[in-house]
Amino acid sequence: DAGVHSKSWYAATCDRKMAEDALYRSNKDGSFLIRKSSGQDSRQPYTLVVFYNRRVYNIPIRFIESTRQYALGREKSGEERFDSVAEIVENHQRTSLVLIDSQNNTKDSTKLKHIVRVS
User: C-alpha dihedral over 76, 51, 14, 80, to 10 degrees?
Assistant: First the structure.
């Protein structure tokens, strides 16, 4: 278990649209939640959804079978790996998370500051 089910930032029954709507309503940079990934792929079980600069970012959380760890986004060399999804959240509450906008080819960064609950 990724250690998500008891967490206030985990939106268990939330789909992508509900998550994005909730974050747009919050309208605060650094608002975030974690939802199940749409694809139900065991290698990418969750998605970190972050609001920043009037945009919502959906960042896949990958499960790395060989090490039983989690990582954000696409696989890259030297990436940070975590033993649980909760560790990813705790880490990025302290250190900035890089947000890559592939459409506009821009990079931003923010910390995870505000937990958004989906009603």
Answer: 20
Instruction: Report the pLDDT value the prediction gives residue 50, as an integer from 0 to 100.
Output: 97
* Domain 10-115: assigned CATH number: 3.30.505.10
Beta bridge partners of 62: 71
β-strand pairing of 31-41 with 44-52: antiparallel
The pTM score is: 0.93
Phi, psi for 33 (deg, rounded to 5): -155, 170
Q: Name the pLDDT band for 2 (thresholds 50, 70, 90).
A: low
Radius of gyration of the chain from its Cα atoms, rounded to whole angstroms: 13
Q: For the residues of 53-66, what is the DSSP string, one character each?
A: TTEEEEEEEEEETT
